[in-house]
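WARN retry 2 of 3 for item q-0093 after timeout on previous attempt; input resubmitted unchanged.
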Amino acid sequence: MKTNLFFSLFCVLSQLCFSQTSLEKVTVSSHTLTMGLGFFEYNNSNTIPYGMNGSSFNFRYRLYKHNLKTGHDFRYDVYFDYSGLGNPYIIDKDLVLFNYFGFNTGAGWMRPIINGIEGLGVNVGFGVNIDGEYILPTEEANALIGHPINFGKWLVSSPCLIRINYSLKSFSLTNSFQLPLIGFGYFPEYQYSPSRLDEHYYSYFMKPNTIAYLGNYRLIDNEFDVSYPLGKTTVNLSYAFTTCNYIVNNNSQHYLQHSIGLGVTF
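OK item q-0093 returned
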């Protein structure tokens, strides 16, 4: 009886180990850390109607899984962004008047498209994404601008994803494109006044009040990446272009960001 029990347990454990080994052979995973520096231009009819700009700093973590059998890809991103915004028309052009904080995280699933070109891979798919921003005036802004206000928004959306990869000897060229199609979230209402919300200030911002779609919200995130293997890791040099333009709740916003990043994949 004990012999049969041990034999059955051995068979189950062996099957589990074999399945795990097979899965590891089928799926290839990679982790990428990227630090970026760039330039940020921002305009908001509610907070900064005349526009401001400044240098930006960002950090991105990306998990990528590729199924060698089906060619399907899974991607997960976490992205943090900071920019100190100033007015280019004042005497001290380097004076930071507003601090911009951005956050973006999401997962996506893509499948390959047959293109008939050797070395070229094209994958398309959809995902789930959360992006948000918060703008905080500095003490200098309080001194120069009459009653500057905080500003923030967040959006849960479903974006379309396009990834194009081309292998050129030891180099790998990759372009990733993302565009939210529809979502819901919080966007400030026209001429809102947070000071009147008192103790309900933060809970007010957590309540979704808007349906966003391509007609009123357009966020384009495009990244071009050049990778080169170096030992057991891969070095990446990237250029990211992000632009957002929306008109929601009678408020309009537009921002444009260029960023150069250096990363490592392991």
